[in-house]
Request: fold
Amino acid sequence: MSAWLIIQREFRTRVRTKGFIGATIIGLVAIVALNVAPALLESVFGGKQITIAVVDPGSAATDGGEALLGRLQAALPDTLPNGERRFVLIKAAGDRASLEQQVRAGAIDAYLVAPPSSPGGPASARFEFVALDSAGAIDQSRLTAALNSATVYLRLRAQGLTTADVQAAFVLVQLDARSLDAGAAAGGVSGATWGLTYALVLLLYTTIAIYGTYVAMGVIEDKSTRVVEILISTTRPFPLMVGKVVGIGFVALLQYAVWIGAGLLLMAARGSLSTVEVGPVSLSFTGIDPWLLAAFGVCFILGFFAYAALFAAGGSLVSRSEDAQQITGPLTIILVVVFFIALYAMEHPDGSVTQVLSMVPLVSPIVMFVRLAMGAPAAWQVAVALVLQVAAIFGLLWIAGRIFRAGVLLYGKRLSLSVVARALR
Amino acid sequence: MFDGVVAVDGLSLRVPEGTILGFLGPNGAGKTTTMRLVLDILRPESGRITWRGAAITDAVRRRFGYLPEERGLYPKMKVGDQLLFFARLYGMERPAAERAIGAWLERFDIAERRQSRLEELSKGNQQKVQVLAALVHGPDLALLDEPFSGLDPVNTEHLTAALLELRDAGKTVVFSSHRLEQVEDLCEEVAIISHGSLRLAGNVDAIRDAATRRVIDLRVAGDAEPDVSDLPLETLEPGRGFGRYALRPGADPQAVLATLVQRATPVELFALERPSLQEVFLEVTADEHGSGERVLAGPVGPDRGGAA
Reply:
């Protein structure tokens, strides 16, 4: 009952703060910007049709109708938003001086000069590309690749190969890797799964670092405002700690719900719901096991509450907000260590070290998720991890309560180890 | 707990239910510590604290109300939300709490600040909110540590009336204060502690009656200082034409008067009085002021069926 009151108070007062509203709005703006910006940039800078005049002295002599121009056009199939071709290749009219004139006048955007060719193909492979702003007209590595593919095609055709032969020669290889050793990285892990795992690890890490600090500050606030005297005389320390951690946890969940909801809405509006951009990582939702998403949720909540309890215990050790750093600093280091363990686990999802660590409380939420996503943990290992983690959450909350209780009236002082030890007896 | 200092020791105190007890003592005497012990904020190393003869459970403690000496409120929380939070922690249902908060805010003239954040209020108004946080649920036992500090005369009256009302409803109030006239007006019971132990407790009138030493008010004609040398008197208030003196234990006031008359002192008034609470307090806590004498201390007051 009193835990519920504390949850309500923590949630309501925090959700109304300028800090929370501001951070949520900034996050929303960032999400909208990331979603809209590429399309916006495209329409502003990439929406122009580029006309390139091609000077090809060798074409008449070498091919039977299959000119460089045609092959090049095939290699640059981009379209504009209105459906027209982005790159329009035309046969050049006039000499270089006249072409330069046309570029300056804006009649064409650029011109391309191919080297003269001999019957065996172009004698030299040096092309010349001229525009007002040659880098702005077309990405040059893109143009080089298109020219390569067109030129190689024409050379092979000149050697007497049929179009079908050439196409067969151009088929690219695919590599299907598979590991026989269970401890090795599973070859079948898709980029999407890897991305989702990495995203959880990052999300959990940042959420805990930010909201864990809030939990510590919230506990310290009760002491620095002396409200603690009224709280402790009406409420047991354990429900007090549960209230703090769950209340602030709900605030975190609300913020993520707003952001994720907005992101999904935007993607639905753009009709690209199957792909999610998380920073540099691109995940595909199609083909991901819904059970894995459920595991994500469970691991997220178990991980969050365990660390929040740890931060609550830490906050109970000091009574002034100026001292919060002394507590959040060391705890963040623990978090960083777990983060690196998770990165290791992603390389060796079912290695023996990973198997052991995936059952250790505080480490298990992240590492066991990595294994669920990428490896094949035994059911008993999942059960052990779950039981130990839940026990750890309650244990840490209980310890936090005891420390909080002991520290109630040691205002302005840090608790000595002996006092903490006595409180825990 | 306090770096080896014993804050409260051998304190034995019964508070009769349905009374207002003034809890007095010099700074650092252990008043706040005693209240915290009753509220289970601190735990005694030995000893017992009971309510109606039984150990204090969580449910019983939720029927207490506490006003800490230092501000104990959330600065950034609105007054109304804050009071609702505390009222509900004390076990009130929401609708009843909302009604009670409205009535109490009205009564203390801060209804218009219900939506203000606490930190926007003046110190006096913050103290009012603190008082309401302790009283809004109509506690069976209100423990108020310096409730009058920072209140103006109007609000002092409001609080006095509220405490009397609680008492009339059969509730018990324990409050500490340094203003002894106020205690004398408001309380029928007082307890005086010093150095963590009880010096005197009981009914205010009984304490003043039971004081082993009487006080003599003496007025003489003219503005000469009366000659009290060699008399069994201690000067409390010296003055020209008027003096207030404590009579040493065992001394006979008639003999004092006779001596004065013998010395041809032009006595206009010779009154044997009970000491004021202030004087009792100063005597009882005299060791804190240096003299070490405790002559006024009478027997500990009558023990009516009690609490805490």
About this structure: The radius of gyration of chain A is 32 Å. Residues 61-65, 183-187, 273-287 of chain A have pLDDT under 50 and may be disordered.
